[in-house]
Design goal:
The complex is a heterodimer. By secondary structure, chain A is an alpha+beta fold. Chain A has helices at residues 11-22, 27-37, 46-58, 82-106, and strands at residues 2-3, 25-26, 42-43, 62-68, 74-80. Chain B contains nine helices and three strands, in the order ααααααββαααβ. Classes of the chains: A alpha+beta, B mainly alpha.
Chain lengths: 113, 238
Amino acid sequence: VAKQQDLLQGTLDLLILKAVSLEPVHGYGILLRIQQLSGGRLQIQQGSLYPALYRVETRGWIKSEWGESENNRRAKYYRLTAAGRRQLQTETETWSRLSAGVTGVLSAEPERL
Amino acid sequence: MSLFARGLSILDGVFRRNRMESGMDEEIRFHVARYADDLERTGIPRAEAERRARREFGPLEPVKEECRQARGLRLLDETVQDLRYAVRSLRRSPGFAAVSILTLATGIGANTAIFTLVDRWVLRPLPYHDAGNLVSISTVAAKGGVGTTAAADLYDWRSSAKASKPSADGPSPSTRSPQAATRSRSSAWRPMPSSFPCSASRRSLAAASCRRTMFPAPLRWPFSAAASGTRASVAAAM
């Protein structure tokens, strides 16, 4: 299981943007969603989620509002803004390039040099 | 990222600090409670589930501090803390506070005074158009000694200059007196009133100065001043 500190710098922001882009969700829901979508391979440390959420919100990529949760508790729901959607697209492309590059290096074999 | 959005968010944090703090507490409480619910569903007793949820979340204060930092509030907090500390220290030793304040006040006052003088005397141009071309006129006696020039002399010089060359109004550098050549920053005598349009923005000061120093018609060097035993010279540029 990859812990949060193993994630590349900035990856948590990208995961948050993606999780929030699917539908408005509260902080705890974001953790569950990332865990679920990664097949349990990614587990975000609970304490590091909120500073990241506040940072992303301060940058204007997500917006929060209070609402009722599924068990009638008051919860803060986050949703993606237009700027956040653009940022998600940019970061996804950057991630794809990085990932393809790393995969290319890792799949190198002596006879193909 | 929009700088505007970031600024708004920070401002929002500053002005609604209390709301943000209570919101942060409530959000974390909700998180821990929801996690405890999930743990309870796996068969763990409620009390134990809540304890475990709190433990796994970790210490609250560092998380909240990081959240405030993410909002850009840390600098503000530290500044406020520093100010409080300064006020407490000054209260503890009023003698030291008085000396510090007096020293600062004297230093600031002296600096302001010096700057004001330098600004008025050195930095600011005179309130005339082409202030660099202004000259002052002194009368140098045949035996030496520089004195002020009487207005009547100037009127005389002006009328004799008119009589000799009524239409001339250009510079005549070749005809300056020897003193003028060595002491003047001005390269030549120039027609005066037409060169002295007062600045409209400083009308009152300029008007007062005009009355004191200006002449109603062009005045040209050389003047026929030999008869009175004095020579006029362009002594120094103002």
